[in-house]
Records
---
Amino acid sequence: MARGSGSGEREREGAATVLFHVLGPLEVHGGDAAACRLGAGKPATLLATLLLQPNAWVAADELTETMWPEHAVPVSVRANLKTYVWQLRRLLPDHDGQPRFERRAGAYRIRVRPGELDAHRFGELTADARRAAAANEPDAAATLLEQALRLWRGRPFAGLDTAAARTVSSRLEQQRDEAREHLAELQVALGRGVDAVATLRAVTAEAPLREGAWVRLVRTLHAAGRRAEAIVAYRQAREVLSTELGVEPGAALTEAYRLVAGGTPSGKVRRELPRDVPLTGRAHELATVMRAATGLMPVVLVDGMAGAGKTAFAVHAAHRLAPAYPDGQFYLDLSGADQQGRPDTAYTLERLLRGIGVPAAAVPSDVDERSALWRSELADRRVLLVLDGVPDGGRLAPLLPAAPACLTLVTTASRGWHLDGAARIALRPLAQVDAAALFRSAAGRRALAEPAAVAAVVRRCGGLPAALRDAAARLQSRPQWTVRRLADELDDDPCRTLTDTVRRSVADVCRRLAGAEQAAWRALGDLPEDFAAAAAAPAMGVTAGAARAAMEALVDRGLLEVVSPERYRSHCLVRHLAKCAAPGTGPSRTHLRDHRRVA
């Protein structure tokens, strides 16, 4: 057991804490970090066999079969095992002051602390990398994976040719290939296309039957503008699959080749996200999105009343997560009604398919076929979708990816439908502190000098982000105004002071209300902020049961909040707009003053 020339290996990250190196020829690194390669003798075989199951008891009979597989077992086998254990015990440091090897009747085991076995260290680093990627830290994730992969020196447990060793070695090599493919995805996302190609070429050279690695290699070469190399890679993959397995390339590899041969000419990945804007007071909701992105069905449904900032929230979250989805980020506005020009599902699917690189001539005419092709195209990709203003689940279903590596963020003004397995986030008006912070950041220095007036503006806007931004914009356009003047203007007539953003959004919702729901909506203008369902019945001229049903419909539309089973709460701007919409009334000063008194 001579000292080897493995000094270069000890400089590998983490090598100072790793005692046993099995990701290649078996080595032991002592306290001075000098590598000792044990060779192919019986002590090395004994140690490697025990390290296949660290901290577990291994029967002496199993050790005997491993160490003398094709030879007669010596009569002194028990004594020989004790001798080899004694030799190893002299070589290895103790385990927390206790013997490194333990023996009981008919079995031995080796004690290994966390971090002492490079195979375990590799697993810890790759798990940390997955967590970093899920937390939108691609740089950190790539660094961790590179550190993990540098632990490898060759085939695991090299020289130990047993069924157990082959099983463990195969599992570890599969984990290494998965780590390299993940690293390549991160390298692409970080703009390191050359490194990604090198990483994937290493996988396809050492594991040529991993079709998924060939798919990524072809797509990565194509995205880098290296079309000829992408075609050569496809042909190599096809030859390997045909020769070794007698099969043709699967759907994903075929689609990758079709993209190279006749897809998007530029090879550019679509990145359609609108401009990002800062958010205030949505940390908990953002954390929910980040957790959902690592789930088995990564879909997030964001609802809330008009002006709550659903679109801004979804777009901001998408920008945070975009590096983890290198194959494309799509944004589609599905709001409005079909008869008012909303693109239908067939058109939307065609747009998505062409955006992902499917040639126009290859897009099916049937909607179901388009949906199926869309899911197939995403099977081996990491794509992020933002679907804004989705009216119902029926409209959403054909657009949803089936691949767990894709993420879909959905916004809707309706609470009357759900999606199985999706995380749901209800965006409510901002709390006083967060709303004031948002207004101050948008309004500028004048807001700092009038905290009481800022609080008044926040109250007049009801903490609604869209209204607060509108109010700040109005102040910015009126250099002569004070914040107090703005608060007074809002108190006098919010519709005159704010833009029509919130009013138009509420009007779009109200146009789709049925007769009883319309009556309930208009009744909000004559009801206090917090009211019982029974109190709404006289204002609507219906029974308490009918009033309750109509109010629940307004809850589903995002126009009301439920306080308790029998009580509801309306937003101040919604009440104002309802009063303005009442038949035979206009926004006169007397009307508005009376309305404020009721509210």
---
Amino acid sequence: MRVRIRRILIDISAMLLCGVLAGVIVAAAAFPGLALTGFAAQIGGYELGELPDELMINTSPQLSYVYANNGTTLLATMYDENRRDIPLEQVPPVVRQAVLAAEDQNFYKHIGVDVKGIARAFIANKRAGTVEQGASTLTMQYVRLTISYSATTAQEVVDATEDTAWRKIREMRYALAIEEKLSKDDILEGYLNTAYFGNRAYGIFAAAKVYFDKEPKDLTTAEAAFIAALVKFPGDFDAQSLRGKDLAVSRRDYVLDEMVQTKALTLEQAAAAKAEELKVVGASTPNGCVQASNIKWGFFCDFFQRWWNEQDAFGTTPYERERQLKSGGYRIVSSLDPTTQSAMDRSIDRSLNRNPDLDGGKWKWKSDAVMLAAVEPGSGKVRGLATNRNFRLDSKTKPANGKHSNPALARRGIRGTYPNTTNPLLSGGPDLGGYQAGSVMKIFTLVSALEKGYPLNYNINTRAPYVSRTRITGSPSCGGHWCPTNSGGRSWGSQNMWTGFGNSVNTYFVPLFERVGGARVIDTAKRMGLTFYDNPRTTLDDAYWANERPELWGPFTLGASDHTPLQIANAFATLAADGVYCEPIPVEKITDRHGVQVAAGNPRCKQNLPVDVARAAIDAARCPLGDQSLYGRCNGTTARDSKEIIGKWIAGKTGTTDDSKSVTLTITTKLLAISGFQTDPDWAQVSTHKMSHRVINPAVQYAMRDAMKGKPNTQFSKPSSNRLVFGRGPTP
């Protein structure tokens, strides 16, 4: 019965409005400038009935939250408009009363259009000769906001907001329709969540946070009145400089007086609220990775955002995906582990600034970067990305970054990336392929050899130098062939995979690469997650050698290609996970604004290596770090103190490039893999000074120690058969 009566009332109101709008009276009331055009008179009786009864109510843009893996530590917020919708029950009565007193005191009495208000506005405006009063109800304002947010073109946005008779009439018709479809509380909730309150605050939740750093439920009466007063004049008050404060206080007091008129407040309560000092915080909501909650965590945040922009689940183009992130209201629980991330940050600081192995305890080359990436085996979840940089843009007017390492670029006024940068130093991409990793790359030849059937005890009589099949010009050349040697020019004699890997014998792995076949080795590396890019900034062309000439790319096994710490960490995580490769992923769980989980956040894993191959490779990789093979075959190490410092079962490898342009250390347990690089990321191919294992080794070792505190010490497994351990292997 009530619905039927409401329908009749709306129909009667529509008829009355048609009659009123058919004349010039209302045009003069709300739009004096248009009153004499004849347009309003023409449109009044016809268009109101022709408009659709339904208004498409789209959800306004919502900010997305990115948390650490504990689900409570906020990492970043992403938005185009700072807005978070909340239910009406989370908005206290005093806030609702303040908004209604300021905007529409008859809201709960009219049915979308206030005919008395139109007449009152007409009389006031005629007397003043200008538009002194409007006739928009709160419902009509909500219609205007909804049409604006539903617009798909710039012209539709203009049509939704320009001061025309057509816009006003459309708002009235839709307001009547909305009042039939939604309850008053639903309309008020939608309005409070959609209205703009100035200073990039959209909706009541954002307004309360921006102006007072509170949630709406905690606002005082004076604060509620202040926020309500902003709706009509959102641009007249600057929350940062407090410009327009006196005017803002005056408008706040006006709203308090109106609340007395609506009996929401007594005179005494209003007086007490007026006496309250206005204390605006001006706490703008951080937006994006450059404003991450921890400036060191921005590199992980940036990796997450780049990953998001590649996911088809969020749109067909990177632009659409970014818009989804910044307007979709997602709740993202990322894979970043604050314990691991903090352990890496502390360890980098220790290795560079409080290092007992360095003269004075500090490394003097500030342009060098120590970069650590941590990945969880078996899931690919990235647990942290750390470096001695701040993730932010350097100031253009007062730059903190020093001169570029490359003198040619420095002469052009280009600055380096220390201490501020937004380059993806740890995760890379087509424009930043990475850095040479040195002898850690031998692991891919070792794995490929195991796949082909060469056992761990496969012996090669090493000689230095070794005359390879790769023809080159320049040095080191032996009759036109690349002829690598070992550290110190030493010949190690007969070596197997345990000892060759433990002692990092170059002249074991180059002939092994040739016997296995370069194409096989590169294929293995790709299945373990390596990517090869063309590098336009150097003469190196990794993609060409990997795809076109892999058989002749012997230098690959000693570290000639560029890769990132994230790629190398994930490759060793693949071995620790018994050959299960997982795409590096920065999320634990993604839910949309409705609480529905999005499958794009699920791990993407595949058995890319045979289980026994991965287990055999790990057994050899224990040797370089001072751990012991399960067969007791380790004899030689390049980072012996790693086992003692970490106190867990570990595997991994050191790496050093020619002239120590970069040095690396990678360590994995069953639960976590960390790869660390030290190099100058601005000019990594040129050695202006030598990097040091006295820096990178403790950075990785102590990061792993602290990240693994309290976690199980899980032993690696033996291969299920001895074929890959003590077999005969193929004939060379």
